[in-house]
């Protein structure tokens, strides 16, 4: 049980770091010609990325208690669902003029960047 609580804390720290990095990206975007669509796109992408991360966490926690074959099907179906939703997010950002596509893609990638950098920096711990 302690390990689960530790993982929950680690996930919350990753999410907080993601929000901080997104804030920095948005602050830097203020120096561009038209920052509002980019900032909205980043917010849109980061929000979905955090929700997708949470969905992945729930999927893994639930699949641990399943028989192997059922867990395999469950995880694969959730994987496809997350990627279909990611495609829908990109489609919405392309078709909606108030969103910047690049901002949305940057927002989707920030959590992945935070996880990669966190793992590289804190690998010894």
UniProtKB/TrEMBL annotation:
Keywords: Cell membrane, Membrane, Transmembrane, Transmembrane helix. Pfam families: ATP-synt_I (PF03899). InterPro entries: ATP_synth_I. Its main location: membrane. It is a multi-pass membrane protein. GO terms for cellular component: plasma membrane. This is ATP synthase subunit I. It comes from Alkalibaculum sporogenes. The lineage of its organism: Bacteria, Bacillati, Bacillota, Clostridia, Eubacteriales.
